[in-house]
Design goal:
The structure holds two protein chains of two kinds.
Chain A: E1 5-7, E2 10-13, E3 19-24, E4 31-38, E5 42-50, E6 65-69, E7 75-79, E8 88-95, E9 97-98, E10 101-102, E11 106-107, E12 111-115
Parallel strand pairs in A: 2-12
Antiparallel strand pairs in A: 1-3, 3-7, 4-5, 4-8, 6-7, 8-11, 8-12, 9-10
Chain B: E1 4-7, E2 10-14, E3 19-25, E4 31-37, E5 43-48, E6 52-56, E7 59-64, E8 69-74, E9 83-90, E10 96-98, E11 102-107
Chain lengths: 116, 108
């Protein structure tokens, strides 16, 4: 597609429920990233997928967070048993790679998650 | 981990004025990007600049990697330039580490 797309744009859920956030990267980009933007923590890295390699999960804040990337394209970020501190804007980005290094990362519009 | 500091934290300009935003980082990085986050929250790429100087219209950026800083210049500012400006450095594993941002408000 023309850019990175994310859905839903807004999600309101009750504490304890599970949520799934979707990301469609730019066509042909082999690298996909999830970040989170919250008032207290700013913009922080969550997880990185590169081709068929094992993902870098070093930024996931707890084991309630997981992500997968199917067919090397679409990615889903799942948050189980949501807590109020999970409220944030979840941003997805994608990039091409040159010699293993990421080129410019392009960001989607984000999903605003509110946990009541 | 690496520290990324941006200054100033807030900036108010009169339309037509020029400004310089600064980004300091505490360790060697593979690359650096500047973003503008518009009032709707979209992060827009401005520059991908590991070193040297680049220009795009009224905006330009300079990165001096050996001295661990980057500068973003905005000339003849317009109200549409308002928003938050972030620098982000790319470290090992291709992840980006973001600064806290500079909030820019341009008044007409």
């Amino acid at each position: 597609g023309a850019g990175v797309s994310q859905s839903p744009s807004n999600k309101v859920t009750e504490k304890g429920k599970d949520v799934e956030l979707r990301c469609d990267p730019i066509s042909g980009h082999t690298a996909l990233y999830w970040y989170r933007q919250s008032l207290g923590q700013g913009l922080e890295f969550l997880i990185y997928f590169q081709g068929n390699s094992a993902p870098d999960k070093s930024g996931l804040p707890s084991d309630r967070f997981s992500a997968e990337r199917t067919g090397g394209s679409v990615s889903t970020l799942t948050i189980q048993r949501t807590q109020q501190e999970d409220s944030a804007v979840y941003l997805c980005a994608s990039s091409s790679l040159s010699g293993g290094y990421a080129d410019t990362q392009y960001f989607g519009p984000g999903t605003r998650l509110t946990v009541l | 981990g690496i520290q990324v500091e941006q200054s100033p934290p807030d900036l108010i300009l009169q339309e037509g004025a020029n400004s310089t935003l600064r980004c300091n980082f505490s360790d060697s990085v593979n690359n650096l990007q500047w973003f503008h986050q518009n009032p709707w929250g979209q992060l827009i790429n401005l520059f991908y600049i590991p070193s040297g100087t680049k220009q795009n219209g009224r905006l330009s950026a300079t990165t001096v990697a050996t001295e661990r800083y980057s500068l973003l210049y905005i000339s003849s500012s317009q109200t549409t330039d308002s928003g938050v400006y972030f620098c982000a450095v790319r470290i090992y594993g291709n992840k980006l580490v973001f600064g806290a941002g500079t909030i820019l408000r341009v008044k007409s």
